Amino acid sequence: MRILILIIQFPPDTNSTGRLMAQIGEGLPAYGHEVSVITAFPHYAEFRVWEEYRGKPAVREHYRGMDVLRLWVYASGNKQRMLHRLASYLSFNALATVANLFSRRSYDLMLCPNGSFFTGIAAFVSGGPKRIPFIYNVQDLYPDVPVKAGQLRNRTAIAALEQMERFMYRTSAHISVITPSFRETLLQKGIPAEKVTVIPNFVDTEFIRPLPRENDFSAQQGLNGKFVIMHAGNLGYVYDLETMLEAAARLRQHSDILFLIVGEGVAKAGLEQKARELALENVRFLPYQPLECLPWMRATADVQVSLYKPGAATDSMPSKVYEIMASGRPLLASAEATSDVRRLIETTGCGIAVNPQRVEELTEAILTLYRDPALRAEMGRNGRQHAEQDYSKQVVTRRYHELFSKVC
Q1: Which residues of the chain have pLDDT under 70?
Q2: Are strands 227-232 and 257-262 parallel, antiparallel or unpaired?
């Protein structure tokens, strides 16, 4: 089967969805599939096109057995404003539509993650004349996420995006979602149950694995001898790292506890400013680290966090949760009782969940894990076991193959 992945970010870009789709693409040839990709020039980390791609409309490359067509994308360097991100999404999908329409290549199926929102429309317009069905892969519920995060308030814009969302659901051959609650949300929106399949995101359990707490990364960063609470990943508005900084202020008397925030994103400047205002010497920021450092960086943490603002966890399940589980470290999350993140923690025993924006609960959970190394070890073992059983790259790639066979 000839499969086209239509996605705005793809390696070497640092976006997690792009890395996941790349790993799916790598695994599909084992089932007899031929995989191609249409994507944008790398730009994610700083929202700027990489220097070596500037001034070019398109570049064709090969990535681990996949034919990759990279296209120009609008990336102004300012992704804090929703308008700039929407312009970026529109620019990519417009060019991707044209590129696919006029391509001499034909495909049996398209897989379209919704990270740039409009990929379903691009797939419909460019694949319709060629009668190529598409699977719409829902990584986040749009426009729900930016609305709940307060980044999208214009009612006319919200209504328009909701209409586009329903159009993409309706015209897709099938919809894959990453959590059961996503499926329930789509059913409430009137999508037929037989059209929606739950396939979770995953982790490469051979790459991310339990490793020694003290290693080259921890030594280079001066983290040996510290009890490290780590957030690693996108610093977006849905994450409640402000409450973590308040917990850091309450725990400053514990000189060996260090809060490490690794990554980039629209919320970083505000977090750095708050850390300065609170004079938090027990908080450090690092930029995105090279991919080869990721297993060692996660091993350096004693506790890893995924902290959400109220309501945000119901519309998201970041792949970093599975990375934390695979690394054999406990997960500390703030999420409502009805969220998939919290249910995952409770069913697997891989960590502790608290309510969002409750600094007292978060502080007490940190102290519980700080004081009980046996509990941390048990939660780490539980997470690793379930990562291997249910959320490994091999397990999830097979499920995508089965879905492709069903749709075609």
Answers
A1: 79-80, 145-146, 148-151
A2: parallel
Mapping DSSP to helix (H, G, I), strand (E, B) and coil, where does residue 324 land?
helix
CA distance 17 to 319: 8
DSSP characters over 209-234: ----SS-HHHHHTT-TTSEEEEEES-
**Tokens standing for residue 121:** 């429309």
Max Cα–Cα distance, the chain, nearest Å? 66
The two tokens of residue 158 are: 């919200």
Q: Enumerate the H helices of 113-265 as residue ranges.
A: 119-127, 144-148, 155-171, 180-188, 216-220, 241-250
Any residues with CB less than 8 A from the CB of 236 and at least 6 apart, and which?
A: 149, 265, 266, 267
Torsion of CA 172, 178, 179, 184, to 10 degrees: -10
Euclidean distance between CA atoms 190 and 68, whole angstroms: 35
Confidence at residue 149, expressed as pLDDT on a 0 to 100 scale: 62
Amino acid (one-letter) located at 194:
E
The label of the residue with tokens 């492709």 reads: 404
State the residue for tokens 């930016």. Answer: 146
Amino acid 148: pLDDT:
67
User: How many angstroms from the chain centroid is the CA of residue 89?
Assistant: 17
pLDDT at residue 150 in the model: 66
| Full 3-state SS string of 67-108 | EEEEECCCCCCCCCCHHHHHHHHHHHHHHHHHHHHCCCCCCC
- Here the tokens at position 291 are 């991919």
Full-model pTM:
0.85
Which tens digits make up the pLDDT trace of 256-281? 999 999 999 889 999 999 999 999 99
- Distances in whole angstroms, Cα of residue 57 to Cα of each of 1, 92, 105, 121: 29, 11, 19, 22
Residue 258 is inside which H or E element, if any?
strand 257-262
Q: What is the pLDDT of residue 305?
A: 98
State the residue for tokens 């707490």: 213
C-beta atoms surrounding 51 within 10 Å: 7
Can you tell me which residue has the tokens 């006029």?
Answer: 102
Q: For CA atoms 288, 292, 295, 299, give the dihedral sign.
A: negative
Give the type of residue at 317: M
CA 375 remoteness from chain centre: 28
Predicted pLDDT of residue 85: 84
pLDDT at 317: 83
pLDDT digits (tens, 9 = 90+) for 39-50: 999 999 889 999
